[in-house]
Amino acid sequence: MKVEVYRNLTRQCWSVRSGGRVIGHRHEVMLRTCTMRVREGGRQRALREGQRNVHAWIEGDLCEDVADTVRTEIGYNPFRDSTFTLRPGFDPVFTARFVILSRSGRAYAVL
After folding, report:
1. 95: part of which helix (H) or strand (E)?
2. Alpha-helical runs (H) found in the chain
3. How far apart (Å, rounded) are the C-alpha atoms in residues 88 and 103?
4. How far apart are CA 28 and CA 30, in angstroms?
5. Which pTM does this prediction carry?
6. What percent of the residues of the chain are helix, what percent strand, and what percent coil, each to the nearest 5?
7. In whole angstroms, what is the distance from residue 93 CA to residue 35 CA?
8. What's CA 74's distance to the chain center, in Å?
9. Per-residue pLDDT tens for 88-105?
């Protein structure tokens, strides 16, 4: 099932959206065949107002398990970059084979 997942700062979990509607909240999510999306208009609004809003998410298919392979931390900060980036080098990342969204609020990609 293709979904969009973003960090819910109010509930301190991940919001899972399908068809434009939130279908659930989870503390951990695993996705495959992922694309990182950033809506530039929303990013500009966050920069202008100095407050975060939902304008970036990771799109992919829900999955139950990820092969134990090399994982790289990824993140998104609208005040620093216009794309999701690899950590710690801050190189842009647009797609990944798998993404693990953890209970701690961190995201890890298998590229």
Report:
1. strand 95-101
2. 40-49
3. 20
4. 7
5. 0.92
6. 10, 50, 40
7. 9
8. 8
9. 999 999 999 999 999 999
